[in-house]
Specification:
Radius of gyration: 19 Å
Number of helices: 2
Distance between the termini: 62 Å
Number of strands: 8
Helix content: 10-25%
Largest sheet: 8 strands, antiparallel
């Protein structure tokens, strides 16, 4: 009986450690649409949540066919709108896994030295792109893209106007 109680205690403790902390978020969040940008059939959204310490968590969720492979798709936050040729990278986001079509990143300091608060993110003039590959000709294939912040409300997405973004910071 004593061993059974210890087993329940150990299992209960392990399970409690895997639950996410509900106090981790302030309750502030918003979403942006990510649009199909190539012949690959993906779309999705970017969710921005404020963490209790003031940092921002960016989650990319794609809709499309997932895979069992270990392939991942690089994702970037860029300055300017998706039509801006050679748009500099503001922040490299965690890659989107082909297995679950998801990426979660805690946003840090941007390449220009600035740091975005929840309210400042809404005014940020930028966009997100998810690429097919990190380099080579497949880098130029954008799976999904979408303006965020200030530009999100001001444009209608037109994939024919998609610019290849820069790799520079």
């Amino acid at each position: 009986m004593k061993k059974l109680l210890i087993a329940f205690f150990v299992l209960g403790s392990a399970w409690a450690c895997t639950d996410s902390d509900p106090d981790q978020y302030t309750g502030k969040s918003f979403e942006y649409q990510l649009y199909k940008s190539s012949d690959f059939d993906f779309s999705g959204n970017l969710t921005v949540k404020e963490l209790t310490g003031g940092n921002l968590e960016l989650t990319i969720d794609l809709d499309g066919v997932n895979s069992d492979s270990d392939v991942s798709f690089p994702a970037h936050l860029h300055f300017g709108n998706y039509q801006l040729q050679d748009a500099p990278i503001a922040f490299i986001l965690n890659s989107v896994s082909a297995k679950d079509l998801k990426s979660v990143t805690v946003l840090g300091q941007l390449s220009d030295g600035s740091k975005l608060s929840f309210e400042n993110f809404k005014l940020f003039d930028g966009h997100v792109k998810v690429h097919l590959a990190n380099d080579g000709p497949d880098y130029d294939i954008i799976l999904v893209a979408g303006d965020i912040g200030l530009g999100a409300d001001q444009s209608v997405f037109d994939p024919s106007k998609m610019a290849v973004c820069g790799k520079d910071f």
